[in-house]
């Protein structure tokens, strides 16, 4: 999405290049040095044109009003679109856009399923970006609530070496790691099915698809995770012990980078696409 600031700079750079033949790189602009009186003032008004807030920094203004915006979105949802404690898709098709008249203006919002850990809910969001991020997590949770756990299958099919690698992981409880693998597997299947869905009929088809494919997908992900943990364990073992001061900072940097690669929740966080890259990244150290 092009921001007003980005659009302005695009035009300035184009015009300066036309006038002088010099290309001004984007990171050369030092907008923080522009005097306040030369900056645009953003003003948010409510009913009766009453000013709710104003400022020079649009992002800061949005952050300040985020809770207020959420209250407004919930307030206009007067037909029960926002819900909690849902365990099945029982609400028909979910609209991708929601609009309500409030006084002299319209309030636009973007509904999405939200992950409530033991259930899902429906919540209105201010932007499509927030909506889509929440919707993915909400669909994942709803699928996990309605599909048999693949843990038994994983125990039967996973080689003993891989089981041992998972059970000796240093990043929390093994069941949390397995749940992480399962969530990653669901993400992979949602993506391979086509991504986000909004219709009840499509959700039921997605649920059937995930139920049929999840076991084998999770086994493959768990094998990758075991390989990653084994390599990281070997690297950490080599880093232990007395260290010469000349390499201490380098080793500290390696440990920090490993911690960015492997941490509680790393499987879902990195996603199935990046898992295959992690062993090669760790070998670089």
UniProtKB/TrEMBL annotation:
MF term (GO), any: helicase activity
Gene symbol of the encoding locus: hrpA_2
Lineage: Bacteria, Pseudomonadati, Pseudomonadota, Gammaproteobacteria, Enterobacterales
Domain of life: Bacteria
Record-given protein name: ATP-dependent RNA helicase HrpA
Assigned keywords, A-Z: ATP-binding, Helicase, Hydrolase, Nucleotide-binding
Domain RNA helicase HrpA C-terminal residues, every copy: 4-279
InterPro entries xrefs: HrpA_C (IPR024590)
């Amino acid at each position: 999405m092009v921001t007003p600031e980005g659009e302005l700079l695009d035009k300035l750079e184009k015009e300066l290049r036309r006038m002088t033949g010099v290309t001004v790189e984007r990171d050369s602009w030092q907008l923080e040095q522009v005097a306040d009186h030369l900056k645009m003032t953003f003003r948010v008004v409510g009913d009766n044109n009453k000013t709710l807030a104003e400022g020079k920094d649009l992002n800061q203004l949005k952050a300040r009003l985020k809770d207020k915006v959420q209250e407004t979105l919930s307030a206009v949802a007067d037909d029960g679109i926002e819900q909690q404690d849902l365990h099945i898709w029982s609400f028909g098709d979910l609209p991708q856009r929601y609009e309500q008249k409030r006084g002299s203006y319209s309030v636009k919002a973007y509904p999405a399923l939200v992950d409530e850990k033991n259930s899902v809910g429906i919540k209105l969001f201010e932007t499509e970006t927030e909506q889509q991020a929440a919707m993915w997590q909400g669909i994942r949770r709803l699928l996990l609530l309605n599909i048999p756990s693949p843990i038994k299958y994983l125990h039967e099919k996973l080689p003993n070496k891989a089981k041992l690698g998972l059970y000796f992981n240093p990043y929390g409880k093994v069941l949390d790691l397995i749940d992480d693998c399962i969530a990653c597997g669901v993400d992979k299947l949602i993506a391979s099915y086509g991504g986000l869905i909004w219709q009840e009929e499509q959700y039921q088809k997605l649920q059937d698809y995930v139920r049929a494919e999840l076991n084998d997908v999770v086994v493959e992900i768990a094998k990758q995770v075991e390989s990653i943990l084994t390599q990281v364990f070997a690297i950490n073992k080599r880093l232990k012990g007395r260290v010469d001061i000349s390499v201490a900072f380098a080793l500290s940097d390696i440990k920090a980078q490993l911690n960015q690669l492997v941490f509680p929740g790393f499987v879902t966080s990195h996603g199935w696409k990046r898992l295959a890259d992690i062993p090669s990244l760790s070998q670089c150290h």
